[in-house]
Design brief:
By secondary structure, the chain is mainly β. Helices cover 4% and strands 62% of the residues. It has one helix and nine strands. The radius of gyration is 15 Å and the shape is elongated.
Length: 114
Amino acid sequence: MASVLGTARYKNVKLDLTTTDVTTLYTCPSLMNTFITSILVSEDSGNADTITLTVTNGSDVFSIYKDKAVGAKGTIDLISNELILVSDDILKVTAGTTNRLHVVASLFEVQKAG
């Protein structure tokens, strides 16, 4: 276990979604696997909104959530089980409306063996 901990790190990434464009939240580094343990989304304007979450790899896009509702002044966790990303996977988010949503992802990066 010591060797895993020596090549692993905990991180969090944060975004204030000021646009409705597809926005990169996190890119899994080369030679790493990443365990996403939580993606918290908070609505701070007093208006309900939606968020879309995808994972891309090259030109392939995989939908995790499409227009997931976030209540006014509410917070939701998009991850009920760990989401595992592999090298070069990109986690992207899209807000339904500008300047309403904040996103915080907690993750654990582990270097691939070999």
